[in-house]
């Protein structure tokens, strides 16, 4: 590790020669302590969480894991590697607070009175593309719409506070935490 920090990694953007030897030793000691922080262990049962995910929670309808499921919400294949336990729990009991960047719920009313709720995929001056809540891709010219309401801070994801017991929430969080991407 000392050598990597001292000389950089050839042909990468990791440069060398930034530190004195003394600083280097301090740095190596510090980096070693980082690796020692025990990862937080999720208290729940991931196997039961997986059942709740597929069954009672109906999460599959909106989320993909390993390429299977719906596409209304973000892909969760590596969610455990990207998010803390606290965030994962929050996303279930307070989905509107934990919405990731880039997700915007929109509510549209077409000229012939059809109301559609979805997630915005793309929008320009003349048109908007959304994924509706059945997972379908829809594209509209703005001239076809009577109303276009952007709902920042709203989420089509249901709040699971009243659906799961506290133990079930622990289990679902443990399952999500176990999703660390393709191995
Ligand atoms: C009706 C569709 C729908 C259902 C059902 C649903 N979600 Fe979501 N979920 C979303 C959408 C849309 C987002 C992004 C906006 C947000 O965070 O509220 C999201 C966000 C999330 C996030 C945050 C992802 C990130 O990258 O930050 C997690 C975690 C999550 N959902 C887990 C679940 C789990 C677990 C279930 C089942 C218990 C579930 N969702 C059910 C639509 C849904």
Topology:
Layout: H1 2-7, H2 21-36, H3 46-54, E1 64-65, E2 68-69, H4 79-82, H5 85-93, E3 105-110, E4 115-123, E5 127-132, E6 137-141, E7 145-151, H6 166-178
Antiparallel strand pairs: 1-2, 3-4, 3-7, 4-5, 5-6
Bound molecules: heme C.
Task: Give the key terms.
single chain; 183 residues; alpha+beta; Cytochrome Bc1 Complex, Chain D, domain 2; SH3 type barrels; five-stranded antiparallel sheet; two-stranded antiparallel sheet; 6 helices; 7 strands; 31% helix; 20% strand; flat; binds heme C
Give a written overview of the molecule.
Strand 4 (115-123) and strand 5 form a beta hairpin. The protein is flat and about 75 Å long. By secondary structure, the chain is of the alpha+beta class. The model has no long low-confidence stretch (mean pLDDT 88). The longest helix is centred in the N-terminal third of the chain and has 16 residues, at 21-36. Helices cover 31% and strands 20% of the residues. It has three domains: 2-36, no CATH class; 46-99 and 158-178, Cytochrome Bc1 Complex, Chain D, domain 2 (Orthogonal Bundle), CATH 1.10.760.10; 105-151, SH3 type barrels (Roll). The strands form two sheets. The protein has a five-stranded antiparallel β-sheet with strand order 6-5-4-3-7, with no helix packed on it. A two-stranded antiparallel ribbon has the order 1-2. Bound molecules: heme C (HEC). Heme C binds at residues 53, 57-59, 61-63, 72-74, 76, 79, 83, 88, 91-92, 95, 98-100, 103, 119, 133, 155-158, 160, 172, 176.
């Amino acid at each position: 590790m000392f050598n990597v920090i001292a000389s950089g990694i050839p042909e990468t953007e990791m440069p060398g020669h930034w530190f004195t030897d003394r600083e280097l030793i301090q740095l190596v000691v510090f980096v070693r302590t980082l690796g020692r922080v025990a990862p937080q262990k999720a208290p729940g049962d991931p196997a039961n969480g997986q059942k709740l995910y597929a069954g009672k929670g109906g999460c599959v309808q909106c989320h993909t894991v390993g390429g299977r499921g719906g596409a209304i919400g973000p892909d969760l294949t590596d969610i455990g590697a990207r998010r803390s336990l606290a965030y994962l729990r929050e996303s279930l009991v307070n989905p509107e607070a934990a919405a990731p960047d880039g997700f915007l719920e929109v509510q549209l009313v077409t000229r012939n009175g059809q109301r559609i709720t979805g997630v915005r995929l793309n929008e320009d001056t003349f048109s908007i593309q959304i994924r509706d809540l059945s997972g379908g891709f829809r594209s509209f010219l703005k001239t076809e719409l009577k109303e276009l309401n952007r709902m920042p801070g709203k989420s089509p994801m249901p709040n699971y506070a009243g659906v799961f017991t506290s133990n079930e929430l622990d289990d679902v969080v443990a399952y999500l935490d176990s999703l660390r991407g393709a191995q």
